[in-house]
Specification:
The chain is α+β, with helices and mostly antiparallel strands. Helix content is 38%, strand content 14%. The protein starts with 11 loop residues before the first helix and ends in a 14-residue tail after the last strand. The relative contact order is 0.16.
Length: 140
């Protein structure tokens, strides 16, 4: 089993898990393979979030650095989704300010993410529902 505290990278089993999940997206299959999810997907994502936190703290110390807020859930909320499969076939780690209804934190400051799925890894940054009046402003 991998250490939860040290990011040692992702393994071929990580990507294989997502490929198999896409073909078997139902609860009995997931329950049978949950140990793979925990060791090959969730633990490395948590370790990556912990490893990157000091660097992102230097970018913006107001970001939310709680791992349960930085790492997406694999469970899909099917109440409002057209896709009724119970599990997402990708996950991500994001670095952003916490959402506060009374402020424009998500619309005024960029967020950064790393998404992982069966086909690989995507990295990006952007602003969620950016407002026109921000006019390209990025905090210093």
């Amino acid at each position: 089993m991998k250490s939860e505290g040290i990011f040692a990278g992702f393994t071929p089993e990580t990507f294989q898990f997502f490929a198999e999940l896409e073909e078997n997206n139902y609860k009995p299959w997931f329950d049978e393979h949950k140990h793979i999810y925990e060791t090959e997907v969730l633990q490395p994502l948590k370790a990556l979030a912990v490893a990157l936190t000091p660097s992102f703290y230097e970018v913006d110390p107001e970001m939310d650095f709680r791992p349960n807020k930085m790492i997406s859930r694999i469970y899909r909320d099917i109440r409002f989704s057209k896709d009724k499969t119970p599990y997402k076939n990708h996950m991500w780690v994001s670095f952003q300010r916490p959402f506060v209804k009374t402020t424009d934190d998500w619309t005024s400051f960029p967020g950064y993410y790393m998404e992982i799925g069966k086909e690989g890894i995507n990295l990006g940054m952007g602003m969620f529902q950016a407002k026109k009046e921000n006019n390209g402003y990025l905090p210093g």
